[in-house]
Amino acid sequence: MDLTINQPKHLGVTPPIVTAHPTQREIEVTDLLLQELTVQGTFESDDESKRREVVLGKLDGLVKDFVYQISREKENLPEPDAREAGGKIFTFGSYRLGVHGAGTDIDTLCVVPRHVSREDFFTVMYDFLKKRNEVNELTCVTDAYVPVIKMKFQDIPIDLVFARLNLSRVPDDLELRENSLLENLDETCVRSINGSRVTDEILRLVPSIPAFRRSLRCIKLWAKRRAIYSNVMGFLGGVAWAMLVARICQLYPNAIAGAIVSRFFRIMYQWNWPQPVLLKPIEDGPVRVWNPKILFLLESEQTSYIMGIDFI
Question: Do 168 and 113 contact (CB within 8 A), yes or no?
Answer without folding.
Answer: yes
